[in-house]
Amino acid sequence: MNVERDFSCFLASLIEAGAKIDSHYFKQHVTGSKKPIFRERVYCYEFYHQLRCILGDDFPYKLDGELDKQAHPILAGQKKPDFVVHVPGNMDRNLAVIEVKRARANHTEIRGDIKKLKGFLDTAEYYKAIMLIYGDENSNVKYARSEINSLPKEYAERILLVWHKKPEEKPEVVQISKP
After folding, report:
1. pLDDT tens profile 104-116
2. Which residue, among 178, 142, 169, 155, has the nearest Cα to 23 in the 3D structure?
3. Helix, strand, or coil here: 159?
4. Could you tell me which of 100, 86, 171 has the C-alpha nearest to residue 130?
Protein backbone atom coordinates (compact mmCIF):
# COMPACT_ATOMS: atom_id res chain seq x y z
CA MET A 1 0.00 0.00 0.00
CA ASN A 2 1.22 3.45 -0.91
CA VAL A 3 -0.88 5.95 1.03
CA GLU A 4 0.34 8.94 -0.98
CA ARG A 5 -0.60 7.26 -4.26
CA ASP A 6 -3.94 6.10 -2.82
CA PHE A 7 -4.75 9.63 -1.68
CA SER A 8 -3.83 11.09 -5.09
CA CYS A 9 -6.14 8.56 -6.73
CA PHE A 10 -8.89 9.41 -4.26
CA LEU A 11 -8.49 13.16 -4.78
CA ALA A 12 -8.66 12.74 -8.56
CA SER A 13 -11.84 10.70 -8.10
CA LEU A 14 -13.31 13.36 -5.81
CA ILE A 15 -12.69 16.03 -8.45
CA GLU A 16 -14.21 13.85 -11.17
CA ALA A 17 -17.25 13.15 -8.96
CA GLY A 18 -17.81 16.87 -8.35
CA ALA A 19 -17.95 17.50 -12.09
CA LYS A 20 -20.85 15.04 -12.34
CA ILE A 21 -23.09 16.86 -9.84
CA ASP A 22 -25.76 18.77 -11.71
CA SER A 23 -27.68 21.88 -10.63
CA HIS A 24 -30.58 19.90 -9.13
CA TYR A 25 -28.28 18.58 -6.39
CA PHE A 26 -26.34 21.83 -6.01
CA LYS A 27 -29.35 24.01 -5.11
CA GLN A 28 -32.96 23.06 -4.53
CA HIS A 29 -36.03 24.91 -5.72
CA VAL A 30 -38.45 25.55 -2.88
CA THR A 31 -42.17 26.03 -3.34
CA GLY A 32 -43.10 29.63 -2.67
CA SER A 33 -39.58 30.95 -3.17
CA LYS A 34 -38.13 32.45 -6.33
CA LYS A 35 -34.54 31.55 -5.46
CA PRO A 36 -33.21 28.02 -5.11
CA ILE A 37 -31.38 27.32 -1.86
CA PHE A 38 -28.42 25.21 -0.84
CA ARG A 39 -29.27 21.88 0.81
CA GLU A 40 -26.09 20.36 2.16
CA ARG A 41 -27.52 16.87 2.66
CA VAL A 42 -28.86 16.70 -0.89
CA TYR A 43 -25.46 17.73 -2.24
CA CYS A 44 -23.68 15.22 0.02
CA TYR A 45 -25.89 12.31 -1.01
CA GLU A 46 -25.27 12.97 -4.69
CA PHE A 47 -21.57 13.55 -4.05
CA TYR A 48 -21.41 10.19 -2.24
CA HIS A 49 -23.23 8.45 -5.10
CA GLN A 50 -20.97 9.89 -7.79
CA LEU A 51 -17.80 9.23 -5.81
CA ARG A 52 -18.76 5.61 -5.03
CA CYS A 53 -19.50 4.98 -8.70
CA ILE A 54 -16.06 6.30 -9.68
CA LEU A 55 -14.12 4.55 -6.91
CA GLY A 56 -15.81 1.22 -7.59
CA ASP A 57 -15.22 -1.89 -5.53
CA ASP A 58 -11.49 -2.25 -6.24
CA PHE A 59 -10.37 0.88 -4.39
CA PRO A 60 -8.55 -0.39 -1.26
CA TYR A 61 -10.55 1.85 1.13
CA LYS A 62 -14.24 2.24 1.91
CA LEU A 63 -16.16 5.49 1.63
CA ASP A 64 -18.64 5.95 4.47
CA GLY A 65 -20.98 8.86 5.08
CA GLU A 66 -21.75 10.34 8.49
CA LEU A 67 -20.23 7.41 10.30
CA ASP A 68 -21.30 7.56 13.94
CA LYS A 69 -18.25 7.24 16.17
CA GLN A 70 -20.10 7.45 19.53
CA ALA A 71 -19.59 3.76 20.39
CA HIS A 72 -16.02 3.68 19.08
CA PRO A 73 -13.55 2.82 21.89
CA ILE A 74 -11.00 5.41 20.73
CA LEU A 75 -13.19 8.04 19.09
CA ALA A 76 -16.14 8.19 21.50
CA GLY A 77 -17.26 11.77 21.85
CA GLN A 78 -16.04 12.81 18.40
CA LYS A 79 -18.66 14.40 16.18
CA LYS A 80 -19.71 12.67 12.96
CA PRO A 81 -17.68 13.69 9.93
CA ASP A 82 -19.58 14.03 6.66
CA PHE A 83 -17.40 11.35 5.03
CA VAL A 84 -14.53 9.07 5.94
CA VAL A 85 -12.32 7.07 3.60
CA HIS A 86 -10.83 4.21 5.58
CA VAL A 87 -10.40 0.51 6.13
CA PRO A 88 -13.01 -0.30 8.79
CA GLY A 89 -11.61 -1.89 11.94
CA ASN A 90 -8.06 -0.73 11.28
CA MET A 91 -6.96 2.60 12.78
CA ASP A 92 -3.73 2.73 10.79
CA ARG A 93 -5.59 2.70 7.45
CA ASN A 94 -7.49 6.01 7.72
CA LEU A 95 -6.99 7.81 4.42
CA ALA A 96 -9.24 10.89 4.51
CA VAL A 97 -11.89 12.62 6.56
CA ILE A 98 -14.14 15.14 4.80
CA GLU A 99 -16.40 17.97 5.90
CA VAL A 100 -18.75 19.68 3.44
CA LYS A 101 -20.17 23.18 3.77
CA ARG A 102 -22.22 25.38 1.50
CA ALA A 103 -20.43 28.56 0.47
CA ARG A 104 -22.91 30.69 2.43
CA ALA A 105 -22.39 28.90 5.75
CA ASN A 106 -21.57 31.11 8.69
CA HIS A 107 -18.04 31.42 10.03
CA THR A 108 -18.90 29.51 13.20
CA GLU A 109 -19.94 26.47 11.13
CA ILE A 110 -16.78 26.58 9.03
CA ARG A 111 -14.53 27.04 12.07
CA GLY A 112 -16.34 24.13 13.79
CA ASP A 113 -15.80 21.85 10.80
CA ILE A 114 -12.11 22.72 10.60
CA LYS A 115 -11.83 21.99 14.33
CA LYS A 116 -13.58 18.65 13.74
CA LEU A 117 -11.15 17.79 10.92
CA LYS A 118 -8.21 18.68 13.16
CA GLY A 119 -9.63 16.41 15.88
CA PHE A 120 -9.83 13.46 13.47
CA LEU A 121 -6.28 14.08 12.28
CA ASP A 122 -5.14 14.00 15.93
CA THR A 123 -7.24 11.19 17.33
CA ALA A 124 -7.78 8.88 14.38
CA GLU A 125 -4.57 9.68 12.53
CA TYR A 126 -6.16 10.25 9.14
CA TYR A 127 -3.59 10.82 6.42
CA LYS A 128 -5.41 13.94 5.14
CA ALA A 129 -8.51 15.98 5.82
CA ILE A 130 -10.61 17.82 3.26
CA MET A 131 -12.77 20.87 3.80
CA LEU A 132 -15.07 20.91 0.76
CA ILE A 133 -16.99 24.12 0.15
CA TYR A 134 -19.58 24.23 -2.61
CA GLY A 135 -21.18 27.30 -4.17
CA ASP A 136 -19.89 30.36 -5.97
CA GLU A 137 -19.58 32.67 -2.96
CA ASN A 138 -15.85 33.07 -2.36
CA SER A 139 -15.80 35.01 0.92
CA ASN A 140 -16.16 31.82 2.97
CA VAL A 141 -13.53 30.10 0.87
CA LYS A 142 -11.19 32.95 1.81
CA TYR A 143 -12.29 32.64 5.44
CA ALA A 144 -11.69 28.85 5.49
CA ARG A 145 -8.31 29.35 3.84
CA SER A 146 -7.39 31.89 6.51
CA GLU A 147 -8.54 29.56 9.31
CA ILE A 148 -6.56 26.63 7.94
CA ASN A 149 -3.56 28.88 7.37
CA SER A 150 -3.69 30.01 11.01
CA LEU A 151 -3.23 26.42 12.23
CA PRO A 152 0.22 25.06 13.07
CA LYS A 153 2.09 23.99 9.93
CA GLU A 154 1.54 20.25 10.47
CA TYR A 155 -2.24 20.78 10.18
CA ALA A 156 -2.14 23.32 7.36
CA GLU A 157 -0.18 20.76 5.33
CA ARG A 158 -2.69 17.97 6.02
CA ILE A 159 -5.99 19.84 5.56
CA LEU A 160 -6.92 20.47 1.94
CA LEU A 161 -9.43 23.12 1.02
CA VAL A 162 -11.48 22.14 -2.02
CA TRP A 163 -13.88 24.59 -3.67
CA HIS A 164 -16.68 23.34 -5.90
CA LYS A 165 -17.91 26.59 -7.44
CA LYS A 166 -20.58 25.44 -9.87
CA PRO A 167 -22.55 22.36 -10.88
CA GLU A 168 -21.03 20.17 -13.57
CA GLU A 169 -17.62 21.80 -13.10
CA LYS A 170 -14.56 20.29 -11.51
CA PRO A 171 -13.86 21.35 -7.93
CA GLU A 172 -10.43 22.86 -7.37
CA VAL A 173 -7.91 22.51 -4.58
CA VAL A 174 -7.31 25.94 -3.07
CA GLN A 175 -3.68 26.62 -2.29
CA ILE A 176 -2.92 27.02 1.41
CA SER A 177 0.26 29.00 1.86
CA LYS A 178 2.10 28.45 5.12
CA PRO A 179 5.22 30.51 5.81
Report:
1. 899 999 999 999 9
2. 169
3. strand
4. 100
Q: Which of 81, 51, 50 is nearest to 65 (CA)?
A: 81
Q: DSSP state, 33?
A: -
| Rounded Cα–Cα distance for residues 76 and 67 (Å) | 12
Q: What is the mean pLDDT of the chain?
A: 89
Phi, psi torsion values for 79, nearest 5 degrees: -75, 160
The 3-state secondary structure of 91-122 reads: CCCEEEEEEEEECCCCHHHHHHHHHHHHHHHH
Q: How many residues does the chain have?
A: 179
From residue 5, alpha-carbon distances to 2, 18, 30, 95 in Å are 5, 20, 42, 11
CB 16 within 8 A of CB 168: no
Count other Cβ atoms within 10 Å, centred on residue 27. Answer: 18
Q: Residue 6 in 3-state DSSP?
A: helix
Instruction: Find out whether 114 and 148 touch, Cβ atoms under 8 Å.
Output: yes
- In whole angstroms, what is the distance from residue 179 CA to residue 110 CA? 23
Task: Encode pLDDT of 46-68 as tens digits.
Answer: 999 999 999 999 999 999 997 65
**Which residues are CB-neighbours of 157 under 8 A, at least 6 positions away?**
176, 178
* C-beta separation of 83 from 65 below 8 A: yes
Cα(99)–Cα(114) distance, integer angstroms: 8
